[in-house]
Backbone:
């Protein structure tokens, strides 16, 4: 039996705001978190889990499921919040993030329902997802494999090893999304190791490429639902995003990379999210 | 008849692919599979190009979806270049990937330190859940490849490059069980890999002629180490000598010393490659002789240690009497 496609009874933007609020709560915990990179990919995760992916939280091991990997594993808080909102585990469990006794580690681990494979060291996800897609081809299935890459992560050579293999094998059930927030730990990707022209680079490696506003969950969902865009080619969606998007005092700032929110800033952040939600 | 262990692997795998549709062979353009071999394997063989991290990652992804990949690379590239993918993607997830690592030890010969692997056993045996084996000849390779079908976790198999001689006929080795090739109560010669095992067998003959009886223990499985067999062999012995094509630290000698220090403290002397990169040019046999991983060295090591112990024993007695 194929897993049912998830209904989207409420606007994706509202779900995204709730996911951000969970991340803010986790970043106010003792360990803080990778807030900026978690926030920049919230709409991507929302579009995937609430519109695109064929997954069933009650049957996370359904062999016919679509598979997703968060290759930029440091955005674990966003993934955990998304999985909890989607029903893979209770939302209340998020309060334990990073604390003794919790299964919510700072990078995704298989102990968390819905996590396919652990990630965290950059440059691993694309090759793993190639393996998923190849397995699907061998099995004669029609499921798809999705992987979310950071833009700084593209500096890892192993990404391009996998990019070559995916195109060479014509893995068109493979879809990558690049969270193009333009910032890495210490500053601008373009200052540290220029990525542009990014779309041309991927095209040169044999991929079908599209570019989208990475904070427009509906547009993201439309593009992702339509993949493969070119038969015989893997697809990569470059999601133009802002690190820390949604929090005026952190958005677009390098300092958003890793944040432990004080009580005051936690309250500010929640107020900002409420205001965004009310305006949308 | 001499035969390369890597050829034995390939020739054993090909028919297994037929009977086990879940098996798949992924290559990194190593050349081990000719066009004919690839054609025989059909869709179950893929040459992914020269990209070892990608090889391990894709294999892990496939294994997570129920396939059992055999991946071909050289030991040097598996144990260092692709190590992180082996550690995180394969070992951490306990996935049944079979890492078939050719050019192990000094097998790369004149190709030099970039292609030699003198650290692989130390590195791989550190990884939780990894099974690490070193077949000593083609027959052992066949046995291990066939037995791997029943293994649930990851497996590292160190293979050679050129033909190496067969061991004297003995029952096929079993993964995880030390192979006792000769029984003797005075010393234990613990070894792995084609040339070290042959050197130990020859050394045991010479020692027997001198009145020293040696157990020759082929510890082809470094992890999980057959500690029970090792301890049983070591208990009556005055000395354990380990012999391997590996840097002296961390490999078989390290594994044996760790096990015996805890379970049955025994003097352990480790013969392997000195703590430096190979600077000699020559084929595997030449380098084995150059670095003196020979029967003569094993005999010399045993005699020196036993004679020294005997002298110390006499001194001790003298000391006690005065």
Residues:
């Amino acid at each position: 039996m194929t897993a049912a496609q998830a209904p989207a009874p409420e606007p994706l933007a509202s779900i995204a705001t709730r996911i951000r609020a969970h991340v803010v709560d986790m970043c106010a915990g003792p360990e803080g978190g990778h807030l900026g990179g978690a926030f920049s990919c919230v709409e991507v995760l929302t579009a995937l889990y609430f519109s695109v992916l064929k997954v069933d939280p009650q049957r996370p091991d359904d062999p016919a499921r679509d598979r997703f990997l968060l290759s930029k594993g440091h955005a674990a808080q966003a993934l955990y919040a998304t999985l909890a909102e989607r029903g893979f585990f209770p939302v209340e469990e998020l309060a334990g993030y990073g604390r003794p006794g919790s299964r919510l580690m700072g990078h995704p681990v298989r102990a968390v329902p819905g996590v396919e494979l652990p990630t965290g060291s950059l440059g691993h996800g694309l090759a793993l997802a190639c393996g998923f897609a190849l397995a699907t081809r061998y099995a004669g299935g029609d499921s798809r494999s999705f992987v979310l890459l950071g833009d700084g992560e593209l500096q890892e050579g192993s990404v391009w090893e996998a990019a070559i293999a995916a195109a060479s094998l014509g893995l068109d059930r493979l879809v990558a999304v690049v969270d193009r927030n333009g910032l890495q730990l210490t500053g601008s990707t373009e200052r540290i190791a220029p990525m542009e022209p990014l779309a041309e680079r991927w095209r040169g490696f044999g991929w079908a490429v599209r570019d989208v506003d990475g904070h427009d969950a509906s547009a993201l969902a439309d593009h992702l639902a339509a993949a493969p865009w070119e038969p015989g080619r893997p697809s990569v969606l470059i999601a133009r995003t802002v690190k820390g998007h949604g929090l005026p005092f952190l958005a677009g700032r390098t300092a958003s990379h890793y944040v432990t929110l004080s009580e005051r800033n936690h309250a500010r952040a929640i107020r900002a999210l409420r205001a965004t939600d009310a305006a949308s | 008849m001499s035969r390369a262990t890597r050829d034995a692997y390939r020739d054993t795998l090909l028919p297994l692919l037929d009977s086990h549709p879940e098996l798949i062979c992924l290559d990194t353009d190593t050349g081990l599979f000719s066009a004919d071999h690839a054609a025989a394997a059909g869709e179950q063989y893929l040459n992914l190009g020269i990209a070892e991290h990608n090889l391990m990652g894709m294999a892990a992804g496939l294994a997570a979806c129920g396939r059992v990949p055999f991946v071909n690379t050289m030991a040097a590239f598996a144990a260092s270049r692709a190590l992180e993918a082996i550690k995180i993607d394969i070992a951490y997830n306990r996935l049944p990937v079979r890492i078939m690592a050719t050019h192990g030890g000094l097998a790369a010969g004149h190709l030099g330190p970039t292609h030699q692997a003198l650290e692989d056993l130390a590195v791989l045996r550190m990884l939780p859940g990894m099974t690490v084996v070193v077949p000593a000849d083609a027959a052992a390779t066949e046995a291990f490849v066939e037995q791997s079908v029943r293994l649930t976790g990851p497996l590292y198999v160190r293979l050679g490059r050129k033909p190496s001689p067969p061991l004297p006929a003995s029952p096929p080795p079993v993964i995880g069980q030390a192979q006792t090739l000769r029984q003797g109560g005075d010393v234990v010669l613990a070894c792995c890999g084609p040339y070290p095992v042959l050197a130990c067998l020859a050394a045991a003959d010479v020692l027997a002629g001198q009145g020293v009886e040696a157990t020759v223990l082929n510890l082809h499985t470094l992890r999980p180490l057959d500690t029970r067999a090792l301890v049983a062999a070591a208990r009556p012995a005055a000395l354990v000598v380990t012999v391997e094509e590996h840097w002296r630290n961390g490999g078989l000698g390290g594994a044996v010393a760790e096990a015996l220090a805890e379970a049955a403290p025994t003097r352990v002397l480790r013969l392997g490659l000195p703590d430096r990169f190979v600077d000699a040019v020559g084929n595997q046999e030449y380098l084995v002789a150059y670095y003196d991983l020979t029967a003569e060295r094993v005999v010399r090591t045993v005699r020196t240690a036993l004679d020294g112990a005997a002298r110390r024993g006499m001194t001790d007695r003298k000391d006690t009497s005065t």
